[in-house]
Inverse folding.
C-alpha cells in the first residue's frame, strides 16, 4: 500500500504544482503609467519604422515597449481599437483600401485627408504627419525575363499573364486593392497564383518557381535580386504614404509623445528609407542599429550610432555563409536573449498546461460518473482542437487583448482534449472488476477513486498530459504573433526579415524543447505507473 | 433466526423484469446456492443483499433490519464478497488485498487479519503476501479473493460464481477449502452458481431460479427427490443421477 500512497502523492503533488504555477501568471498591467506600446507589421520596413518611433520616444524620455511584427493590418487595427497598442507605422493607401474599403480619388494629400477624417470619426485614431516617403506596391519580375518578354509596365502583362505564375503575399491576395483589383484593372489572369510569405518570395522568384511577385517600392531586395519593377501605367495603386498611427488612449495619456512623433513628419525620404531597408534585408544588420543610423542621418539621432555600427562587423550577416554554421554562432551571441525566450516559452506552456490539468483531470473524473455528458463534452473539446491555432489566437485578442494572457488561454483550450479524453478513458478502463469488488467490500466512492482508479489511470492521464505538453510547446511559438514572446519571437522576426538563421534560432530550440518535454514526461509516465500492473514498470 | 431474507423482491431493467417477486430466507449457519441459467436473476438477487443493487419492490432484511435503512458502506464492510474474476486490486500486493476490509474498518491488526485469512484460504502469507495478483495462478488469485472476503471475520459471505472460472481440479480444491472455512467459522453464506452439482456439493440449501422467479427452494439433501420440471432438467443436464 505504501507504493500506492506514494504514487497518489506524486500525482497530487504534480497537480498542486501546476495549479500553483497557473495562479502566478503575470497579468499585463493596465494603468496610466504603462509604457508606450509600439507595434509593427511583420516586414523589415515596418520593423525599422517602429524601432525609429521607439528610439525617438526613448531619446525624449518616454518608456517604450516594443511589439515588433505584431501582425498584419487587421490584427493591428483590432488591437489599436481595443487600446492594446499605442502606435504603429501604417500606409495611407492601406488605410483607405484595406480598412475603409474605398478607392482612391486624388493624390497623396487627398488620401491622407480622407483616412485622417474617417479614422478620427470612427475610432478616435489619429494619423500623425506622414514621414516623407511613399512605399507603394510594386509588381516585379526577374530583369532578364522582363527584358526578353519586352514588358516594362503592368499593361504589358495583360497578354502574357496566362503563361506566368504569380507569387504574392497572403495579405496582397486577400484584399480588394490587391490582386483582385489589379487583375480587373489590367485584365490580368495568371496561369497560377501562389501564396508566399515575404520571407520566401524573393528566393522563389530567383529560383524561377514564380515569375511575378508583389514587392514594395522602397524594398531593398529589389536591387539585390536584380528585379524589374513594372510601372503602374493605369494608376491602379493608391498613394501609400507612411505615417504613424496613434490610438485614442495614447493621444489622451501622452499628448507630449504625440508631439515628439510629429517631429518625424517629412524627415525620411524614399532614398533614406530604401537604403535603411537594404541594410537590414541585404546586409543583415540589426534593426536597432539601422534605425539609430537612420535617425542620425535625418538629424534627429543622438550621435555616433552610424560610426559605431560600421565597425561592428560581427553583427553583419554574411550572406554567403551557410546557415548551419552561422546558427550556433548566432545562438551563442544571443544566449542571454535565448535563455529568456526559453523561460518565457516554458512559462506559457506550464501556465496553460497547469490550468488545463487543474480543469481537465477533475472534469474527466466527473464525466466518468455522468457518462451521459461525456460525449458532448469531449466533442466540444474536440471542436476546440480543430480551430487553427493562429485563428484561435486571433479570436483571443478582442476578449483578452494581447500578450501572455490570451496566449495562455488559447494554449489552455488546446490542452483540454488530450487530458480530458485520457482521464475519462483511463478511469473507465482502470480495472473495473477491482473497482466493483472494492465497492462490494465497502470502499467509498472517494476511496475507490483515490486508491484504485486514479493510481491505475495515472499513466494514461500522464500520457494525455504529455501529448498536450508537446502540442503546447509547438503551438506556443505562434503566440509570438500576438505579442506573448517566447521562442516564436525570433521565428516571427526572422520571417519578417527574410533571415533563415534567425528563424532557426527560434525553431531549433523550440524543437529541442519539445523533445525534452516529451522525454521528461515519458519518464514521469513510468514514475506514476503503479507497481504490479505491467512488467518492467516497477 | 433468518440472517438474510428477501421478501417479494422486484427489480426491473427497462422493460426486463430481472426479479419478479422473489422471496428467500437463509438461516444462520446455512449456505444457500442460487442456481439457474444466465438471465435467471440469480446475480441480481445476490447483489440486492448488500445493496449493490436496489430493488424496485419488496424488501431485503439482513440481520433482521431492512438494508435500505442501513448505511450501505457499513453494511458491505460487514459482509464478505467474492466475485467470479476475483476482482483483486492489481497494484496492491496479495497481503494488501487480503487486509482491505480490516483496514477500511480501521483495525490496527489489519495486516495480521490479512495473514490469517490468507493462511485459512490455503496460501502461505510469507510466500504469497508480497506478490502482486498477476504473479499468481487463477486458483491462487481466487483464494486471495476468498481470504479478502473473510479477513474481517464477517458472519455473512456472498459469492458470485466464485469457482466458475477455475479448471476442474483447482475448482474441487477451492470448494473444499471453502467448505472447511465456512463450517469452522460458522459463516452464513449465499452463492450464485450455474452448476447444480456444485450447489449440491457446497451448499446446505438450494434455490433454483428461472426468469426472475424461484421455481424450487429446498434443503440440498432433498433436491434430488423433490426436483420436478425445470429443476429436474437442470439435474439431468449436469449428470447428477436421479
Amino acid at each position: 500500500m505504501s507504493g500506492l500512497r506514494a504514487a497518489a502523492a506524486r500525482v497530487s503533488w504534480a497537480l498542486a504544482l501546476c495549479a500553483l504555477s497557473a495562479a502566478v501568471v503575470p497579468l499585463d498591467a493596465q494603468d496610466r503609467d504603462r509604457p508606450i506600446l509600439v507595434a509593427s507589421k511583420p516586414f523589415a520596413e515596418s520593423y525599422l519604422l517602429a524601432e525609429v518611433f521607439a528610439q525617438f520616444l526613448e531619446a525624449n524620455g518616454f518608456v517604450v515597449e516594443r511589439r515588433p511584427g505584431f501582425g498584419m493590418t487587421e490584427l493591428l487595427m483590432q488591437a489599436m481599437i481595443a487600446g492594446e497598442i499605442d502606435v504603429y507605422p501604417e500606409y495611407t493607401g492601406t488605410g483607405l483600401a484595406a480598412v475603409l474599403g474605398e478607392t482612391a480619388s486624388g493624390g497623396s494629400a487627398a488620401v491622407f485627408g480622407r483616412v485622417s477624417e474617417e479614422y478620427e470619426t470612427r475610432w478616435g485614431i489619429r494619423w500623425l504627419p506622414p514621414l516623407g516617403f511613399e512605399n507603394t506596391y510594386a509588381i516585379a519580375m526577374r530583369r532578364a525575363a522582363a527584358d526578353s518578354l519586352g514588358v516594362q509596365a503592368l499593361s504589358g502583362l495583360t497578354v502574357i499573364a496566362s503563361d506566368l505564375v504569380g507569387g504574392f503575399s497572403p495579405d496582397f491576395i486577400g484584399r480588394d486593392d490587391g490582386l483582385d483589383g489589379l487583375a480587373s484593372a489590367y485584365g490580368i489572369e495568371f496561369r497560377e497564383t501562389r501564396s508566399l510569405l515575404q520571407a520566401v518570395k524573393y528566393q522563389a522568384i530567383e529560383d524561377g518557381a514564380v515569375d511575378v511577385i508583389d514587392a514594395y517600392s522602397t524594398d531593398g531586395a529589389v536591387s539585390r535580386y536584380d528585379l524589374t519593377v513594372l510601372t503602374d501605367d493605369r494608376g491602379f495603386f493608391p498613394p501609400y504614404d507612411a505615417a504613424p498611427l496613434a490610438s485614442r488612449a495614447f493621444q489622451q495619456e501622452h499628448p507630449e509623445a504625440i508631439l515628439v512623433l510629429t517631429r518625424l513628419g517629412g524627415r525620411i525620404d524614399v532614398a533614406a528609407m530604401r537604403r535603411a531597408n537594404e541594410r537590414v534585408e541585404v546586409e543583415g544588420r540589426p534593426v536597432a542599429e539601422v534605425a539609430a543610423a537612420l535617425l542620425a542621418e535625418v538629424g534627429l539621432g543622438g550621435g555616433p550610432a552610424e560610426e559605431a555600427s560600421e565597425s561592428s562587423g560581427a553583427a553583419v550577416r554574411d550572406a554567403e555563409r551557410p546557415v548551419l554554421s552561422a546558427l550556433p554562432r548566432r545562438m551563442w551571441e544571443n544566449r542571454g536573449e535565448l535563455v529568456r525566450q526559453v523561460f518565457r516559452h516554458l512559462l506559457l506552456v506550464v501556465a496553460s498546461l497547469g490550468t488545463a490539468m487543474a480543469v481537465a483531470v477533475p472534469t474527466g473524473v466527473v464525466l466518468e460518473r455522468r457518462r451521459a455528458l461525456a460525449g458532448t463534452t469531449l466533442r466540444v473539446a474536440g471542436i476546440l482542437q480543430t480551430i487553427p491555432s493562429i485563428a484561435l489566437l486571433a479570436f483571443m485578442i478582442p476578449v483578452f487583448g494581447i500578450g501572455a494572457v490570451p496566449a495562455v488561454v488559447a494554449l489552455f483550450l488546446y490542452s483540454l482534449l488530450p487530458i480530458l479524453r485520457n482521464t475519462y478513458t483511463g478511469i473507465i478502463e482502470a480495472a473495473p472488476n477491482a473497482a466493483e469488488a472494492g465497492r462490494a467490500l465497502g470502499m467509498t466512492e472517494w476511496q475507490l477513486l483515490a486508491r484504485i482508479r486514479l493510481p491505475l489511470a495515472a499513466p494514461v492521464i500522464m500520457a494525455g498530459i504529455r501529448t498536450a505538453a508537446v502540442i503546447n510547446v509547438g503551438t506556443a511559438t505562434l503566440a509570438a504573433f500576438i505579442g506573448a514572446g517566447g521562442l516564436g519571437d525570433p521565428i516571427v522576426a526572422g520571417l519578417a526579415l527574410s533571415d533563415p538563421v534567425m528563424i532557426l534560432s527560434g525553431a531549433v530550440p523550440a524543437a529541442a524543447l519539445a523533445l525534452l518535454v516529451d522525454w521528461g514526461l515519458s519518464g514521469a509516465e513510468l514514475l506514476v505507473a503503479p507497481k504490479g500492473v505491467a512488467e518492467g514498470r516497477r | 433466526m433468518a440472517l438474510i431474507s428477501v421478501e417479494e423482491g422486484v427489480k426491473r431493467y427497462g422493460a426486463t423484469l430481472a426479479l419478479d417477486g422473489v422471496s428467500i430466507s437463509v438461516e444462520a449457519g446455512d449456505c444457500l446456492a442460487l442456481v439457474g441459467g444466465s438471465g435467471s436473476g440469480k446475480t441480481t438477487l445476490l447483489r440486492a443483499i448488500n445493496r449493490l443493487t436496489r430493488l424496485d419492490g419488496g424488501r431485503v432484511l439482513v440481520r433482521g433490519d431492512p438494508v435500505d435503512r442501513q448505511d450501505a458502506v457499513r453494511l458491505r464492510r460487514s459482509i464478505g464478497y467474492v466475485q467470479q474474476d476475483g476482482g483483486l486490486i492489481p497494484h496492491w500486493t496479495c497481503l494488501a488485498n487480503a487486509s482491505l476490509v480490516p483496514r477500511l474498518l480501521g483495525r490496527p491488526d489489519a495486516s495480521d487479519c490479512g495473514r490469517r485469512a490468507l493462511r485459512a484460504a490455503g496460501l502461505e502469507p510469507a510466500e504469497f503476501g508480497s506478490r502482486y495478483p498477476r504473479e499468481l495462478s487463477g486458483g491462487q488469485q481466487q483464494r486471495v479473493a476468498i481470504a479478502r472476503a473473510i479477513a474481517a471475520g464477517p458472519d455473512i459471505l456472498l459469492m458470485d460464481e466464485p469457482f466458475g472460472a477455475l479448471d476442474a481440479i483447482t475448482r474441487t480444491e477451492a470448494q473444499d477449502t471453502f467448505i472447511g472455512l465456512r463450517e469452522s467459522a460458522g459463516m452464513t453464506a449465499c452463492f450464485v452458481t450455474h452448476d447444480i452439482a456444485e450447489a449440491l456439493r457446497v451448499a446446505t440449501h438450494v434455490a433454483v431460479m428461472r426468469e426472475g422467479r424461484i421455481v424450487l427452494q429446498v434443503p440440498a439433501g432433498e433436491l434430488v427427490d423433490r426436483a420436478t420440471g425445470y429443476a429436474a432438467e437442470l439435474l439431468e443436464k449436469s449428470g447428477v443421477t436421479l
